[in-house]
Structures are given as structure tokens and as C-alpha cells.
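Data card: per-record layout.
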Amino acid sequence: MKNLGILLSGRGSNFEAIARNIQAGTIPARIAVVISNKEDAAGLSRANEMGLKSLFLPSKGKDRETYDREVVASLKEYQVDLVCLAGFMRVLSPYFVRAFPGRILNIHPALLPAFPGLDAQKQALDYGVQFTGCTVHVVDEGVDTGPIIRQAVVPIEAGDTVESLSARILTEEHRIYSEAIRLMLSGRVRIEGRRATFEP
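The structure for this 200-residue chain is written out next.
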């Protein structure tokens, strides 16, 4: 059984979706630890309620690599095989990425490479695109630049706000994140440069 480590900073709805799919038997893994850099993160409380090991590791006042070394040490203590970022509002240092090469997943609320970084839903609305969506990618040393594992398209509707668009994107995030985790755990993913390919 593979061990997942979940990193979050807020409500953790993607974490909850992953946990539900594990309980349903559709993801062959266990959540070994949930870590947050925010003590009041709703996702941390939810992890406690679900009986999962949860840790608050404060990031305030620490430089990026110092903090990342603490997080990596905890993930290794719990023998984590795959790290899943679920609304973790920090850019990972090269040290962190190199500690889990090709074994960190992130979900982004846009069709990368369009609209990377913060406020992707607002970026899409401001730009006037007709479609946006979400992307699960392997984390590399850039920001939202790693190889793409799964994407889902979400049409933009007349009168959409950031809130209404975000809600529809989130539904797709919950679906494709679990799909991507299953793929990664299957050993069928091959990454060559920017491209991820999938063996049958």
C-alpha cells in the first residue's frame, strides 16, 4: 500500500475528495500524513475528524528552504511515496522538489500553460476566454510548469463570476486529481522532459 502525504493551507476540499475515494477503494493508497502551514486551516481540522495523522508546521518567519526541510523531514518520517498539494499556498524550493523527484502532484484551476500562478479564474475571466478548466501536473522547480498528467475543460458561461466559475472548476478538480493519483500509483506514467506518457 502506497503512502500519500497531503499538504494544504485552507479548506482542503481536494484533500477530502481524495480521502473519500480512498475510503471507496478507488485509490489504492492510504493518507499517511496531512500537513498544513496554517494552524486554522479547515482541512487540518477535517483530517483530525477523519482520524488521520495531521501536523501544523508553521511557516511564518522562516525562509523557504528552511521550512521545506522541516516538511520534507516529516514526509520522510511517515514514509510518503507521493506528495499531493491540495491548496498549499507556497512555492516549493528546489530542495523540496529534488527530495521527491517526479513524486509531487499539484492541481491548478486553469488549463496550463494558460493562466499560471495566483487568481487563475479571475485571469481567465479578465482575458475573455471561452473555456478554462483545471490541470494536474507533476511539480518541477518552476511555477505551474511541470509535466501535465490530467486536464479537464470547463466552459465559461455568460454572467460568470470568479465564484461561480471556481465552483464548476472545483467539481472537475475533485474528479481529475484522483484520476491522476491512480495513474501515478499504477507505475504507468513515464516522464520525458516536459511530456508525460502513459503505458497501457
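Known properties of this structure: The chain has a mean pLDDT of 97. The chain is about 35% helix and 25% strand.

See the next section for split statistics.
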